[in-house]
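F.,

This is the one I mentioned.
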């Protein structure tokens, strides 16, 4: 059960509530164990025994002595008092049961709340590399199904385990006082019960781990299909995706059926052992009653204790299932909770002056920790385990308040360079400096608060337009939201929306066009008034005229801050203070727009091609 050790800090946080719940549970166990004694006393009174619960070794103990003042054989008053006592015990047990459940189950919900928050908090600080290795659907499965299985351990698992221990311990003590001989006979099936619990517990744990893995794959497939439903329809792949989903679904169902079969064997086996125990008691106890060694009431009380133990014994099997499921699920959650972010603040030190915006790259060579396609590099047509660098020997200085433009063919490392500035990936120490200080020495909160980042892959939340623009800019006014929208040239279109800025954009901004999504994301970066503005191909989905209008509005914004502008269009970058051309991760050209045109290299060719395309569009 080592996977469940991760729950100890959460349990210690609520140790007071758990202690009170267990104390009430113990009181409930004591009250419940008085019940068979009262029933036995009623039977002996009806049978006319002079003393209740009599057997060859004397009385059953102090609890029976409490009944003596109310006891008379074959007496109406005794019957009435004992019946009222019976009702009182049952009522008190019900109240204690309610309190136990409300406290312990309530604590389990509180711990579930903390666990859910901790899992999300850890997911938010893990680097993008973690999400390359793990699919979204699988992580969602861990955050929902696995977390619910862990909650079952904390609530019903703990409660029924404690109930079983308390009830069995008290019942066995009282059964020994009633009849040591019968108690020894009852203990005969116990080794078989222990073996069954251990054997089936291991099998259930193994099966449940495979079920959760299968459910994670199923969730991932469903999430991908829902996210990419338009692509599936466009390529008429509905039937193919249904078949693929059906295969995963069948595998999931098959593994569940295996678990059900195991569980179906476990419970009847446990019930059978319980039935054998009852048979032994009826046979052996009946002979003792006939021989006059115990009273009929004592046998009935003993049988009632055995009935009282039936639920704990059945619960033992159920709790075993809960704990094995919970342990498997907690192991899957520990994968997230124990994952250490590779990007942290260990070397950081605060600077009261804040970030000015100067950026310097010193001999930067960067390779992703794992290959993007899951494979190594190829050399001479052969696969190698070596990971090829994405960026090589980048040396560049961007003064504060200036604009750096980066152009180059697809896959040359432009977006990676932008992500390294925002420290979404960890660059080698000393290769990226901000204001003359290694980027690792800046607190992440300070660094990222100073950066407005518009990634190539635009993402909008399922909120209103206003909330998407104001995301990350706390306490922004309506005027600031509208000003940011005007700078990104989307204010006019927003006013035409049904509810203007209060219009819901749908999941991932599905109700907006590509250009509208990009401009909304641009407004989201602008409203923060960052010291460093990173635009990763942020205008690729807008037409040339809209692009020019946005760039005119952005000039005042860019003049006050450091800007890294990544684009495939020369028209977007021509006014930058410096332009670099990346090819195969290296800087192959560097200069202003005019200097690069004069060099007649890649940039000049790109500019001429785009100029020709624009002229052809006007014809």
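My design for it:
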């Amino acid at each position: 059960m080592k996977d469940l050790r991760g729950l100890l800090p959460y349990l210690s946080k609520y140790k007071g509530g758990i202690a009170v719940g267990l104390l009430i549970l113990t009181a409930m166990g004591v009250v419940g164990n008085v019940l068979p004694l009262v029933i036995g006393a009623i039977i002996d009174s009806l049978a006319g025994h002079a003393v209740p619960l009599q057997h060859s070794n004397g009385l059953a103990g102090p609890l029976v002595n409490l009944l003596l003042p109310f006891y008379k054989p074959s007496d109406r008053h005794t019957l009435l008092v004992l019946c009222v006592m019976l009702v009182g015990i049952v009522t008190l047990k019900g109240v204690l049961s309610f309190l136990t459940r409300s406290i312990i189950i309530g604590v389990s919900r509180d711990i579930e709340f903390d666990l859910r928050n901790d899992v999300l908090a850890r997911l938010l600080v893990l680097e993008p590399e973690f999400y390359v290795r793990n699919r979204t659907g699988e992580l969602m499965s861990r955050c929902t199904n696995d977390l619910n299985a862990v909650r079952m351990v904390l609530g019903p698992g703990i409660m029924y385990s404690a109930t079983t221990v308390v009830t069995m311990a008290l019942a066995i003590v009282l059964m020994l006082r009633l009849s040591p001989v019968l108690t020894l006979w009852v203990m005969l099936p116990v080794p078989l019960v222990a073996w069954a619990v251990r054997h089936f517990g291991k099998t259930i744990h193994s099966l449940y781990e495979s079920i959760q893995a299968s459910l994670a794959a199923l969730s991932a497939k469903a999430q991908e299909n829902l996210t990419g439903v338009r692509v599936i329809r466009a390529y008429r792949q509905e039937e193919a995706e249904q078949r693929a989903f059906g295969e995963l679904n069948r595998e999931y169902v098959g593994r569940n059926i295996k678990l059900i079969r195991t569980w179906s064997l476990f419970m009847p086996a446990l019930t059978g052992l319980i039935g054998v125990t009852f048979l032994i008691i009826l046979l052996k106890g009946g002979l003792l009653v006939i021989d006059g060694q115990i009273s009929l009431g004592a046998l009935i009380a003993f049988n009632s204790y055995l009935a009282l133990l039936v639920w704990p014994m059945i619960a033992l099997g159920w709790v075993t299932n809960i704990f094995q499921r919970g342990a498997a699920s907690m192991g899957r959650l520990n994968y997230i909770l124990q994952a250490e972010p590779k990007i942290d603040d260990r070397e950081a030190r605060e600077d009261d002056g804040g970030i000015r915006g100067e950026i310097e790259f010193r001999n930067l060579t960067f390779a992703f920790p794992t290959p993007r396609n899951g494979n190594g590099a190829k050399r001479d047509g052969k696969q190698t385990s070596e990971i090829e660098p994405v960026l090589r020997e980048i040396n560049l200085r961007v003064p504060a308040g200036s604009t750096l433009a980066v152009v180059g063919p697809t896959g040359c490392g432009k977006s990676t360079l932008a992500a390294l500035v925002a420290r979404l990936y960890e660059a080698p120490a000393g290769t990226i400096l901000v204001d003359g200080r290694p980027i690792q020495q800046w607190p992440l909160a300070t660094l990222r608060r100073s950066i407005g980042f518009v990634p190539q892959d635009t993402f909008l939340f399922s909120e209103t337009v206003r909330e998407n623009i104001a995301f990350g800019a706390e306490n922004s006014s309506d005027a600031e939201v509208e000003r940011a929208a005007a700078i990104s040239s989307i204010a006019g279109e927003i006013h035409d929306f049904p509810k203007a800025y209060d219009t819901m954009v749908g999941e991932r901004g599905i109700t907006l066009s590509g250009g509208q999504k990009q401009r909304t994301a641009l407004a989201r970066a602008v409203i923060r008034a960052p010291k460093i503005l990173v635009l990763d191909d942020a205008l690729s989905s807008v037409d040339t005229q809209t692009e020019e209008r946005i760039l005119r509005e952005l000039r005042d914004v860019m003049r006050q801050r450091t800007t890294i502008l990544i684009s495939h269009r020369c028209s977007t970058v021509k006014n930058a203070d410096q332009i670099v051309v990346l090819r195969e991760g290296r800087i192959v050209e560097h200069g202003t727009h005019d200097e690069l045109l004069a060099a007649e290299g890649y940039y000049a060719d790109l500019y001429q091609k785009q100029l020709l395309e624009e002229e052809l569009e006007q014809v």
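The chain has three domains: 2-337, 359-450+530-618, 464-520.

Talk soon.
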